[in-house]
C-alpha cells in the first residue's frame, strides 16, 4: 500500500520557491491499476518520483507497505527501490552498451542474485514481454516498442509489488503503445500494483482509477469498472 | 567485482583515444621508473659479480682480521700490517677441506696463497703476482701449457721449487731470446726453476677491478710457499659454486666449515668479502641520480594521476544518466563507487603494464647502445603495477564519490 499524506514539494528557482505539489493526500491499495493525468507542470511526474523514492518532498508523510520512506537513508531507499518497485520511463533509460539480457539482469545484480539464477530470471522476464528472441540485441538494435518492453522486463524481473511508469507510451506509436498497455494489464491481473503517468486519455482507459492533477493539486480521483 | 572489471574494459575501449591519452602520464612515469631501476640494478649486479665472482662462479674466502672486512676503506690493502697479526694460524686439515668440498652448493674448494713480489732473472725483473696452488685449484682455473710442462703431482706434494710462468713474465725476464725453460728465477732470493710457460684458458673478461691485464704471473706448488719465508702466509680458499646464485652461500658455508678449527677467542676468521657493503658505497653515489630521476618520474605520475582524475570527472558527468538508472534500479552508493574506482584503477593499471613494457624496452635499448648492464627486478615491476593501481584509486576517488553521491532524480533528469 502506498500512502501519501500532506505531501508538499517546492523547487528553488532563482531566489523564489516555486511550489509543485500542494498537500497531496493519496492512498493506493495493493492490486490497483492507477493512472495519473494532468497537463505538463501539474506535478504528476513529481508525485511518481516521490512514490518511487527517487525524489523527496519538502514536507509530508509517505509510507510504503507501512514503512516510513522519508526517514530512510539513501542506501535503504536503494534496497527498497530494488525490492518493491519497478520503474518504466518514457525514454526507456536502458544502458546503451549492454544487451537486452544484461539490462534486465541489472536489478538482480544489485539484489545479489547469483549468476545462473540471474540469467534464468532475466530470460523469463524477457519471455513474458515477448522478446525471447532478442536476448542479445543492444538497445540501438531494437525498435522503440521493443526497448520499452525490455525496460518493462527489467522493471518486473525482481518481482516488485509496484510498477511505476512515467509516460511509458509517450515515445511509442499506437500499436506499440497497445502492446505495452496489454502487458501492464496482464501484470496487474497477476496482482502487481501499477501506477502510470500519462496525458493520453486512450492510455488512461486501460486503468481502473484515474487521478487528475492540476497545479500540484488533485482535481479528481475517478474510479471506473475494469476495462474489458 | 568481475562484472565491474568487465564494465571498465568496455568503457575504456569505448573511448580508445581518450583512454590512451589519459594513460600517457602513467605510462611515461612508470616507464621512466622501470628504466632507471633496471639500469641501477644492472650496475649493481655487474659490480657484485665483478667483486665476488671471477666469471666461473668462484669467490675467495680469506683469512682475515674481523675488523678488516671493509675492503673499500683501504685498510685491507694499505694498512694490513698494522692490524694485529693473527693470534692463531692453524693448517687446514685434509678432513676439513673434504668437509668443505662436500657442501651441497660447492663444486670445488682449493686452498692457495697469493702475494706480489719482484721476480728476478739476471738483470731483468718485474713485479709479479705469485700464486701457490695445487691441482685442485687448477680445476677451477684451468691453464694451457704453451711451452714445457705442467707442475707434476709429485712436485706439488713435495713442494719442489719449480714454477710455471705466463707469457708476460717470460717476455720481461727473457727479453732477448724468450728461452725460459729450465732457467732459474728468484723470488725473495729463493730460486725457482721454470718448467713451463702457460696461459689462462679463459682470460678474465675485462674487469675494472682486477687490473691484471698484462701482469706477470707465476704458479708454484702450494707446499713450496713456506720456502718464501717472510711472505704473507695467510691462507686463502678458492670456492667455486655450482650455480652463480649460490656463490655467496657456498663461500659462506666453506668459511663456516674452516672457522670450526679457529678457537672461539680469536679475532681472525675466514670470511668472504662483504659485497653488500662495497655495493652500498657505490650505491651512495647512485643515490643522488636516483633521487633526481625518481623525482622527475614522480612528477610525471602525479600529472598522470591528475589526468586520470580529470577524465574520470568527464566520464562521470557523461554517464550521469547511467548512474541515475542504476540508482533507480537499486544500486547502492558503494556499488557506484566501486564501479568508477575499478574503472580508474583498471585504466591506470593498463597504463602501468604498458609503462613497464616500455621501461624494459628502454632499459634494453640503453644497455645495448651504451653497453651498460641492466637487470629487471621483479619487485620493482610488482610495486609499479600496485602503485599505478593505487594512483587510479586515489585520483579516481573524488570523481567516484561525486558519482556515488548523486541524487537519483537529478541524475535521471540530466541531459
Report on this model:
Chain A has 228 residues and is an alpha/beta fold. Chain A has a domain at 30-46 and 83-223: P-loop containing nucleotide triphosphate hydrolases (Rossmann fold). Helices cover 34% and strands 29% of the residues of chain A. Chain A is built from seven helices and ten strands. In chain A, the strands form two sheets. A six-stranded mixed sheet of chain A has the order 6-7-8-3-9-10, with helices on both faces. In chain A, strand 1 and strand 2 (16-28) form a beta hairpin. In chain A, helix 4 packs across helix 5. The longest helix of chain A has 16 residues, at 174-189. Chain A is globular and about 50 Å long. The model of chain A has no long low-confidence stretch (mean pLDDT 91). Chain B is α+β, with helices and mostly antiparallel strands and 415 residues long. Chain B folds into two domains: 2-49 and 286-413, no CATH class; 112-233, no CATH class. Chain B is 53% helix and 18% strand. Chain B has 13 helices and ten strands. Chain B has helices at 2-14, 16-52, 75-78, 94-101, 135-140, 153-158, 167-173, 247-259, 275-318, 320-328, 333-369, 378-405, 408-413; strands spanning 58-65, 106-121, 124-133, 143-148, 162-166, 184-187, 190-200, 216-221, 236-241, 268-271. A six-stranded mixed barrel of chain B has the order 2-3-8-5-7-6. In chain B, helix 2 (16-52) packs across helix 11, helix 9 packs across helix 11 (333-369) and helix 9 (275-318) packs parallel to helix 12 (378-405). Chain B is elongated. Chain A binds chain B through residues 49, 52, 54-55, 74-75, 78-79, 81-83, 87, 89, 93-95, 97, 106-107, 109-111, 154, 158, and chain B through 3, 10-11, 14, 321-322, 324-335, 407-409, 412.
Amino acid at each position: 500500500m502506498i500512502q501519501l499524506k500532506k505531501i508538499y514539494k517546492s523547487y528553488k528557482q532563482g531566489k523564489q520557491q516555486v511550489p509543485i505539489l500542494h498537500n497531496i493526500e493519496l492512498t493506493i491499495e495493493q492490486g490497483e491499476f492507477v493512472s495519473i493525468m494532468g497537463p505538463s507542470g501539474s506535478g504528476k511526474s513529481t508525485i511518481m518520483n516521490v512514490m518511487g523514492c527517487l525524489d523527496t518532498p519538502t514536507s509530508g508523510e509517505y509510507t510504503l507497505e507501512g514503512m516510513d520512506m522519508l526517514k530512510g537513508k539513501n542506501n535503504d531507499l536503494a534496497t527498497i527501490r530494488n525490492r518493491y518497485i519497478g520503474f518504466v520511463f518514457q525514454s526507456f533509460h536502458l544502458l546503451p552498451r549492454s544487451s537486452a539480457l544484461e539490462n534486465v539482469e541489472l536489478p538482480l545484480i544489485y539484489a545479489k542474485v547469483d549468476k545462473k539464477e540471474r540469467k534464468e530470471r532475466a530470460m523469463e522476464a524477457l519471455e513474458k514481454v515477448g522478446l525471447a528472441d532478442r536476448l542479445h540485441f543492444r538497445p540501438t538494435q531494437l525498435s522503440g516498442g521493443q526497448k520499452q518492453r525490455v525496460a518493462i522486463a527489467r522493471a518486473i524481473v525482481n518481482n516488485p509489488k509496484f510498477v511505476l511508469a512515467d509516460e511509458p507510451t509517450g515515445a511509442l506509436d499506437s500499436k506499440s503503445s497497445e502492446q505495452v498497455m496489454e502487458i501492464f494489464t496482464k501484470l496487474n491481473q497477476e496482482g502487481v500494483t501499477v501506477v502510470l503517468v500519462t496525458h493520453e486519455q486512450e492510455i488512461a482507459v486501460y486503468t481502473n482509477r484515474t487521478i487528475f492533477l492540476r497545479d500540484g493539486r488533485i482535481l479528481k480521483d475517478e474510479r471506473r469498472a475494469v476495462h474489458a | 567485482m568481475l562484472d565491474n572489471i568487465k564494465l571498465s574494459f568496455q568503457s575504456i575501449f569505448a573511448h580508445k583515444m581518450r583512454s590512451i591519452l589519459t594513460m600517457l602520464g602513467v605510462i611515461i612515469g612508470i616507464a621512466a621508473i622501470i628504466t632507471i631501476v633496471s639500469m641501477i640494478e644492472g650496475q649493481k649486479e655487474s659490480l657484485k659479480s665483478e667483486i665476488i665472482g671471477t666469471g666461473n662462479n668462484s669467490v675467495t674466502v680469506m683469512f682475515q682480521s674481523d675488523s678488516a672486512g671493509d675492503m673499500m676503506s683501504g685498510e685491507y690493502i694499505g694498512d694490513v700490517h698494522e692490524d694485529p697479526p693473527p693470534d692463531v694460524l692453524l693448517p687446514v686439515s685434509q678432513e676439513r677441506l673434504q668437509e668443505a668440498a662436500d657442501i651441497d652448493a660447492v663444486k670445488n674448494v682449493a686452498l692457495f696463497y697469493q702475494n706480489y713480489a719482484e721476480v728476478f732473472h739476471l738483470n731483468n725483473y718485474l713485479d709479479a703476482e705469485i700464486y701457490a696452488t695445487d691441482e685442485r685449484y687448477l680445476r677451477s682455473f684451468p691453464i694451457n701449457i704453451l711451452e714445457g710442462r705442467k707442475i707434476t703431482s709429485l712436485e706439488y706434494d713435495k713442494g719442489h721449487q719449480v714454477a710455471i710462468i705466463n707469457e708476460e713474465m717470460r717476455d720481461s725476464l727473457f727479453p732477448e731470446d724468450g728461452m725460459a725453460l729450465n732457467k732459474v728465477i728468484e723470488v725473495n732470493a729463493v730460486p725457482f726453476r721454470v718448467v713451463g710457460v702457460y696461459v689462462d684458458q679463459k682470460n678474465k673478461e675485462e674487469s675494472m677491478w682486477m687490473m691484471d691485464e698484462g701482469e706477470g704471473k707465476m704458479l708454484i706448488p702450494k707446499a713450496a710457499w713456506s720456502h718464501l719465508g717472510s711472505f704473507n702466509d695467510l691462507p686463502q680458499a678458492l670456492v667455486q659454486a655450482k650455480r652463480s646464485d649460490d656463490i655467496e652461500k657456498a663461500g659462506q658455508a666453506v668459511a663456516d666449515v674452516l672457522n670450526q678449527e679457529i678457537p672461539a677467542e680469536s679475532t681472525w676468521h675466514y670470511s668472504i668479502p662483504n659485497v653488500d657493503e662495497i655495493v652500498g658505497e657505490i650505491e651512495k653515489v647512485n643515490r643522488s641520480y636516483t633521487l633526481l630521476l625518481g623525482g622527475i618520474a614522480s612528477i610525471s605520475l602525479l600529472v598522470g594521476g591528475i589526468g586520470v582524475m580529470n577524465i574520470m570527472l568527464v566520464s562521470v558527468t557523461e554517464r550521469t544518466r547511467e548512474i541515475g538508472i542504476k540508482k533507480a534500479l537499486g544500486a547502492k552508493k558503494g556499488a557506484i563507487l566501486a564501479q568508477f574506482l575499478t574503472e580508474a584503477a583498471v585504466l591506470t593499471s593498463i597504463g602501468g603494464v604498458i609503462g613497464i613494457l616500455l621501461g624494459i624496452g628502454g632499459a634494453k635499448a640503453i644497455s645495448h647502445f651504451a653497453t651498460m648492464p641492466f637487470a629487471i627486478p621483479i619487485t620493482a615491476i610488482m610495486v609499479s603495477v600496485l602503485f599505478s593501481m593505487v594512483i587510479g584509486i586515489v585520483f579516481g576517488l573524488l570523481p567516484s564519490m561525486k558519482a556515488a553521491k548523486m541524487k537519483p532524480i537529478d541524475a535521471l533528469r540530466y541531459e
